[in-house]
Design a protein that fits this description.
heterotrimer, A mainly alpha (638), B mainly alpha (170), C mainly alpha (103), A: 638 residues, mainly alpha, two-stranded antiparallel sheet, 25 helices, 6 strands, 4% strand, globular, B: 170 residues, Four Helix Bundle (Hemerythrin (Met), subunit A), 3 domains, 6 helices, 73% helix, 0% strand
């Protein structure tokens, strides 16, 4: 076990070293060298991750029948006797799984970017930031305590900010990066407060202790309440707020669609596959705590997830920017994972822990096919130099490889067997089915919508009306199509991994079986969505416009993303900036400053008067002196 | 009461002193003011002679008239257009000056004239012996002034150096 | 010595207060310095007069006057050096105009 801790450390050291190298010396390197350094580093990281994960799952991880947690850390900050912040690494099923996901997607993105970003200004900077991001994300999943996780959490936010704003000369990119940073930072405030509350009452930051169901924390009876809820409810709710910010849950989702201003491979890496699932990972990490200490918060999470997935799916049906469709799709799918966590129970007995497993499974498969979708979209954008659907159409002849891989990903996300999305989505639906029929119905609807909007996207890009292109779109080189094909392969095969054997909430193996009563309708609803999309979009018809007009207000609201951005603008600009800040600023400027100014004015005036006594006019002094002498003399004499 | 020659001389000198000193402070031409000052100083030397302090009178003439006043005249030549009138002093300032000086003068004269002085029994009319002055200046006994004399000479040396340092061109 | 002591003192008092008046009212630095000379001179007269009439056998008053004259000469020399320097730097010796270091 010991060497794997060391390997895990190397997984962290290599990307940060590559970041420093590229960041400090990048400007002296050629593009080719920089790309090579970044990609090679990530390649080694990926290899190490595979080795670690493989050995974890197949040799040292299993103690008896259970997958244990292995961690090693050293004390970094000593706060109190009970409370100290450690730095270290933690290996357990979900972190091992995340290692594979992150390093694979990151490696694919690194390779893909060699072609996609070719000749861009700031190529070295781009690779430096990618390395920084990989470092922070790997550090996040390997964190053995919640505080280290928070540190890497913020690092992830920073590198996301840097990469969204990569085209820093473009005002919309700058605005988007700021928006992403501010919104997630606001959510992280909740996360930090949650951590502080949690650690204050449990006296630890360590995940091992926080999630040890036999430990003292779970048997203590802390009954402190605040505003009618227990402090643990507040803590977990606030921690979830941080997760919701990163994972773009309602109502903190507004930054993710705008984050598409960044380069497309960045969207694939950060805003589809890795960073945005950090919230899911966080909840999964603390899942035993959520389940035993604050089960009602899990219910809240489930309902927020359901609402978000439905909302995002509806909005995705109306967007015309292909990356935004994918962004809303991502929000919707991550919300799916949240729902699965929310409905899950602890343990591996029957369908009890199915939700947890399904959530992780969906995270795993989704990472690959969503990265594939984004990279495919990137290939399309690369070919036609536009993000907008109306500039595309009939591209299947020009981009055969992209077409096929994109289709595979679409089928996968639509839940059509035998692609991986079918398996993981099906598990989620089963888990919801057992727990709450309302959530199940909602998720069922979302599954249909997902199929519809993905195929709307697919047909609009690859079928539909032929556009006259200024120059014939061409398939990109192997460094771009290679990752597409590899990810497509993963999309096909990952569904067959017996995931339940490896990743469960308590580490024990669990058995899953097809629940046909759920699986068949879910496939049917997916097919139905695809059929509707085919009718509406395969040939250029007016049906879609008619449907849009018949929907009326709903369509308009959805295409405006249900006015969330406007609402936020209203709240921040009008209410906070205009009313509250404005009046406070007025008070500050006129009353507080005014009082000080008055004092200053008053003392200034007084000083001028006193200063007049020290005029420096010698004759005036002499006069005063002489007059005083004579007056005093006169007083003495008379 | 018989009027003696010394009385006449005294009154003449007094008139010169009073008149010239007033003219010296009110004259608007600086060179004239210096000239009036010259008359005042010479008349003061006359007072000293009248009081039989001949040595002092000689010093007064040589140092004040021969030294200081010449210095004044030179500096006037150096610093202002000769014959240029100084601007009229503001009335408020003149009144302020008058109040202080007239008030002070009135007070002092009042005290002066109402005081009884313990006159020495016999006022010596004789001139002070030059030899005695020399002895006093050069001795270190009681009522002898070698130390102040040396102090003054050091002071004068310091003044010479200071004057050179301050006034020389950089 | 038929002239009473008060007569001398009255004259010196007038000289003194004329000096004070000049010191307060004059604008020209040299004129101020002249007023100062008047004041000093009046004091010298007083020393000598008191010496002659009240302590005729002694010479303190006279020596005080001698030293006072010496000090006055020194003081005037330095003052004039300063005034000339001021004039050289600022081209004026009027107290109302030389105010770089004043309120």
């Amino acid at each position: 076990m010991e060497p794997y801790i060391l390997i895990a450390l190397f997984i962290l050291i290599i990307p940060i070293f590559s970041f420093l190298l590229l960041g400090l010396l990048g400007s002296k390197m050629s593009h080719k060298t920089a790309g090579l350094i970044g990609t090679t580093g990530l390649f080694i990281v990926a290899l190490l991750s595979y080795i670690t994960a493989f050995h974890y799952f197949f040799s040292f991880g299993k103690v008896g029948e259970t997958y244990e947690k292995f961690s090693a850390s050293f004390q970094w900050l000593h706060l109190t006797d009970h409370l100290h912040i450690d730095l270290g690494v933690l290996l357990d099923p979900i972190s091992s799984m995340m290692l594979v996901v992150i390093s694979t997607v990151s490696l694919m993105v690194h390779i893909y970017s060699l072609g996609y970003m070719h000749g861009e200004k700031g190529f070295q900077r781009y690779y430096a930031f990618l390395s920084l991001f990989s470092f922070s994300m790997l550090g996040l999943v390997l964190a053995p305590n919640i505080f280290q996780m928070y540190i890497f959490w913020e690092l992830v936010g920073v590198s996301s900010y840097l990469l969204i704003g990569f085209y820093y000369t473009k005002p919309s990119a700058v605005a988007a990066s700021k928006k992403a940073f501010i919104v997630t930072r606001f959510a992280d405030l909740g996360f930090l407060v949650g951590i502080l509350i949690l650690s204050y009452f449990t006296k630890t930051f360590d995940f091992n202790e926080l999630t040890n169901v036999h430990g003292s924390i779970f048997h203590s009876h802390i009954t402190t309440t605040f505003m009618g809820f227990s402090v643990f409810s507040w803590a977990t709710l606030l921690i979830f707020m941080g997760g919701a910010g990163k994972s773009a849950m309602l109502p903190l989702h507004i930054w993710l669609p705008d984050a598409m201003e960044g380069p497309t491979p960045v969207s694939a890496l950060i805003h589809a596959a890795t960073m945005v699932v950090a919230g899911v990972y966080l909840v999964a990490r603390l899942f035993p705590f959520y389940y035993f200490m604050t089960p009602h918060v899990l219910t809240v999470i489930a309902y927020i997830g359901a609402a978000t997935s439905l909302f995002a799916a509806v909005v995705a049906c109306t967007q015309t920017d292909i990356k935004r469709v994918l962004a809303f799709s991502t929000i919707s799918q991550i919300a799916y994972m949240m729902v699965a966590l929310g409905v899950s129970r602890y343990g591996a007995d029957g369908e009890a822990g199915l939700g947890f497993m399904a959530s992780m499974f969906h995270l795993f498969t989704h990472a690959f096919f969503k990265a594939l979708l984004f990279l495919g979209a990137g290939a399309v954008i690369h070919a036609v130099h536009s993000n907008d659907m109306s500039d595309m159409g009939g591209l299947r002849k020009y981009l055969p490889i992209t077409h096929i891989t994109f289709l595979i990903a679409c089928l996968s996300i639509a839940g059509i067997p035998p692609f991986s999305g079918f398996f993981s989505k099906d598990e989620i639906l089963v888990a919801a089915f057992h727990k709450d029929i309302v959530l199940f119905a909602c998720q069922y609807l979302v599954a249909g919508l997902t199929a519809f909007y993905m195929f709307r996207l697919y047909y609009n890009i690859f079928w539909g009306k032929e556009n006259h292109y200024h120059h014939t779109p061409e398939e990109a080189g192997l460094n771009m199509t290679g990752p597409l094909m590899f990810l497509a392969l993963l999309t096909v095969v990952t569904g067959f991994i017996p995931f339940a054997r490896f990743v469960t909430s308590d580490g024990l193996k669990m058995e899953t079986e097809m629940v046909w009563i759920v699986a068949i309708p879910s496939v049917l609803v997916g097919v139905l969505g695809i059929v509707i999309a085919t009718i509406m979009y395969k040939k250029p018809t007016t049906i879609s416009d008619k449907v849009a007009t018949s929907m009326g207000g709903l369509y308009k609201a959805a295409s405006h993303k249900f006015y969330f951005d406007e609402l936020y603008m209203f709240v921040t600009k009008k209410i906070i900036f205009g009313l509250i800040s404005g009046s406070i600023a007025w008070f500050d400027r006129h009353v507080v400053d005014g009082f000080m100014n008055f004092q200053a004015y008053w003392s200034n005036g007084l000083s001028s008067k006193i200063k007049g006594l020290q005029s420096g006019r010698l004759q005036q002094y002499a006069w005063v002196f002489a007059a005083s002498v004579f007056v005093i003399a006169a007083l003495v004499i008379f | 009461m018989e009027i003696t020659a010394s009385q006449i001389i005294f009154y003449i000198l007094s008139a010169i002193i009073v008149g010239c000193s007033i003219m010296s402070v009110v004259s608007r031409k600086i060179l004239r003011a210096a000239t009036y000052l010259l008359f005042v100083l010479i008349a003061t030397a006359g007072f000293y002679v009248l009081l039989n302090y001949h040595f002092l009178a000689a010093i007064q003439i040589s140092v004040y008239v021969g030294g200081i006043l010449v210095l004044f005249v030179f500096s006037i030549f150096l610093t202002s257009q000769v014959g240029e009138k100084m601007p009229q002093v503001k009335l408020s300032r003149r009144i302020a000056g008058l109040i202080v000086s007239l008030g002070g003068a009135a007070l002092t004269l009042f005290v002066l004239l109402t005081q009884n002085y313990p006159y020495a029994a016999k006022v010596s009319e004789s001139e002070i012996d030059m030899y005695a002055i020399g002895q006093s200046l050069m001795g270190t006994e009681r009522f002898q002034y070698l130390l102040p004399f040396e102090a003054i000479s050091v002071l004068l040396l310091a003044c010479i150096i200071t004057g050179i340092l301050v006034a020389r061109k950089k | 010595m038929s002239i009473p002591m008060e007569f001398y003192l009255v004259v010196s008092t007038i000289m003194f207060f004329t000096g004070v008046y000049g010191f307060i009212t004059r604008h020209n630095m040299l004129a101020i310095l002249m007023s100062l000379e008047l004041i000093l001179n009046a004091v010298n007269v007083n020393f000598v007069v008191f010496n002659r009439f009240l302590f005729p056998g002694q010479m303190e008053g006279m020596f005080f006057s001698i030293f006072s004259i010496g000090v006055a000469a020194a003081e005037t020399a330095v003052a004039i050096a300063i005034i000339i320097n001021v004039f050289r730097n600022m081209k004026k010796i009027d107290t109302s105009e030389v105010k770089n270091m004043k309120y």
